[in-house]
Amino acid sequence: MRPRLLRLVGEVKVRFLTLC
Description:
Elements: H1 3-19
């Protein structure tokens, strides 16, 4: 897998957790 995609997914996950 591409590191950029993995990093993007991680950032989105962190944002979602922060939003909740």
